[in-house]
Amino acid sequence: MKTKTNYLFGLLTALCLLSGCDDNFDEINTNKVDPTTLAPSFVMNKAIIDATYLDGFGTLQMLCYEFGIVQQIITPYGSSLAGANYNQNNVSNTPLVWQNFYRNVLKQIVDVVEKTKDDPNRTNLYHMARIWKAYSFMILTDTYGDIPYTEAAKGYISEITSPKYDSQEFIYRDILKELDEASAGLDAAKAVESTDILYGGNVVKWKRFGYSLMLRAGMRLVKVDPTTARNYVTKAVTGGVMQSNDDNAVMRHTALYNNWIANHLQAREKTNFYLAAPFVNYLKTNNDPRLGSIAVRYVGAKGGPEQVDTRASSDPKVQVGMPMGYDNVTISTPAVLAQYGVASLWDFSQVNLKTVLKLDAPEFHVTYSQTQLLLAEAAQRGWITGSAADYYTKGVRANMEQMATFDPAAAIPEAAIQAYLTAHPFDPARALEQINTQYWVASFLNGPELFANFRRSGFPALAKNPYPASEITEDFIRRMPYPDSETVVNQQNVNEAIARQGPNTLSTRVWWDKK
User: Fold this and answer.
1) What H or E segment, with its residue span, contains residue 115?
2) Do 108 and 213 fall within a single domain?
3) Nearest CA to 98 among 151, 145, 64, 132?
4) What pTM, to 2 d.p., does this model score?
5) DSSP 221-280
6) To 10 degrees, the CA torsion angle through 492, 498, 499, 502?
7) Contacts with 308 (C-beta within 8 Å, 6 or more apart), sequence order
8) In the chain, what's the furthest Cα-to-Cα distance?
9) To which H or E segment does residue 492 belong?
10) Residue 392 and residue 271 share a domain
11) Is 18 contained in some domain?
12) pLDDT per residue over 162-198, tens digit each?
């Protein structure tokens, strides 16, 4: 039997040699429907999409912390929603921005930078990726302070699984260098990336975005390094920042691809979050027409089921913001409800889910309005030419005009815009407060930027949250603590960062947040 088997094997081998058994071998054994690589342009689009808090990553951190710290949106509820409302560390929510950006955004954008840096045919994509990488790292370092930077997102590329933490000072200096080089390196005469989800490959708009982001990064350093700040602010203006709302860095949504903050609030959290009294009162006191675009109140509602359209009012006169310092029990006492003239906690004003937080509402990263207001501050400091008053007026107007992009019902008539600007002219005597308070309004729903600019500028001048069980030693939360998971997997580097920066608490200030 063995001899017969050997004979058959030999015969088959001979036949294969004669007939060429390896013909089309590679083609037959290649899976043509299971790609092993992705086009860098598509990977970059994924990085941009993920930075908009797709699938809820970071949404609860904004709702429970950033919006509450700057006193624009607040919840009276504790447990999984505790955060800035109680000035407490909720370890379920403080790591969310970290987890999203390191696991998703940076893993992708670092890969794009690595794949395109030596490709002469993809120079524009390379520089676009550097700009988005800088933007992503700004959000992370502004939120947590010292973070993995030079060795970050290198697990697949260099097998670095325990990245070192760089100081925020080093990170910011490198971010500014990257933005300077990448913005200048973009060239409309070279190949464009038409599949780019942010600007459709428009190199001019990418340049303006890069220089506007450089302006923002430069202004972060006004308290710790004004010389470097002024240097890069000047470079940004010379390079060319955003010229109109058409240049806004915005993620557009549809009925199928939703704005996730809107999705979150229209579902399980609909009755849990309310506009905070300091924000509503500021808009209301100043007859700001944006209040009618932003707010809705279900007048007289005594429970979630009573928040129905027949009770809904966007009339600025009836809006009542939820005060700071209460939980769902203390705010529901008869004395408190009577003081604010509401029937229940469900009767306070909320973000309008039919205008600025429709499911297809856009989400803004960097805007012309914000850029003009930063230019107003730079001009007021004497760093750039031009009129601070002119920049200021253009910034306020741009944000009011931007409201129309949410929904036609949110659009502000020209007469209302002009009336507001006439009634609230630029005041050089209180310029920094006025500019940065308007920046607070213009950055509504942009959690990371609201939190960062509030710490940088000290405005608006908010009263501290008086909730009695506060865990912080400062008047306001200054940063998010590192995730517990980092202590488990990267303890040595975490400990080095804490030793350099300060305790891993809500009260520790990041490098540029100098008293």
Assistant:
1) helix 106-116
2) yes
3) 145
4) 0.93
5) TTTT-HHHHHHHHHHHHHH----SGGG-EEE---SSS--HHHHHHHTTTTTT-EEBHHHH
6) -170
7) 298, 301
8) 105
9) helix 491-501
10) yes
11) no
12) 999 999 999 999 999 999 999 999 999 999 999 999 9
